[in-house]
Amino acid sequence: MASKRPQTMAKRAREQAVKEKRDRKRDKKAEAAAQRAAGGETAGDEIAEGESTGGEIADDESTGSDVPQAETDT
Length: 74
Description:
Layout: H1 9-38, H2 43-49, H3 59-63
């Protein structure tokens, strides 16, 4: 019976890097959940709410409508 080929160091290093990345992501998500539970905002919350997107598209541009709408400056 032939023996199994040993695991290469490169493969082991790749697997370890993936595991560490998953651990960091899990920790980051747990920290964000803890902040949300405590009532604090995270950077992702601002983007999700559209507060800091950098620019907003008017309704007529986003729907593709060619009919111009009146703009109000208040």
